[in-house]
Model the fold of this input.
Amino acid sequence: MFRKVKEIKTLEDNEEFCKSIAQMLKAHLTVIPKLSMGILESRGRMDPADLDKFMNTVLRSRISRRVIAEQHLALTDTYHSPWFSPGAKLSESEFIGEIFIKCVAKDVIERCTRAVETIARATYGHDVELPEINVVGHLEASFPYILSHLEYIVGELLRNSVQAVIERRQRAKPTRPSPPPPIEVTICEAQQHVIIRISDQGGGIPRDELPYLWSFSKGPQSEQRLENLGRVPKLAATMQELHVSDELGRADLKTPNYSSSLSSMTGRPPNLRLGMGLPLSRVYAEYWAGSLELHSLEGYGVDAFLQISKLGNKNEQLTTRATMDAV
Done:
């Protein structure tokens, strides 16, 4: 496609180029659902480890290309903004394109909390009693990051915890109603990284699901996941896609004008589970040289640990051409 685009020499040429990029981003929103369906349909014919390796490789390649495309669109939007000042120093800017110079962990968690609460009420009813989400630790910790990636990871982890607590409480049917146990979020700032721990009392992960926790070729629930994916025409893997479309504006999450990492997925039911949140979150975390780990205590709850590079000096964990050719 880019070979057909003429050399950019003027602002008008760049506008045409941006239109082409936006169209390309929108056209490729079908990639993740189709890939996932293909993985699930092939699970009986190929080794699950090979399928997951293929999916991880393709997703890393996709992330790198979308980051470049979305960064160019965001920089163009910034240039045309009325408040843009070409001479502004880096320290005076909150972000450079899609990259926020100082993502404050506490602020991101609070935004994602509001989003997750919206999802929970849409799923279980507006009268459902939600667990309180407490944030403690180094509340001023900040780091450079692409905000949409961080929101997706934190949003998925919080959503899983809230759903687990609510559903465990519903199954128990206590004779004496008591408030659901809170979800504890701890922010730990070290010299080179920030760790976010999310702890819940939702009963933990069943033992038979643990081997498939990070796999795209889900074991016991493959048929249900395949059916659910068939109802999802497009997927960008973003926090906004966890929303019901008419609730999107209430979550305080900003959406740009192009189909990007912040685009919503129209019409997705809030209770539609695709079984991809954790594997995709780990791909995002590891792409930026971080990590995502879960520790489950069956019968009690789960501790999730997200480690993020604080200095912003880590290279992306890119997929090489040799790696692509090998899968």
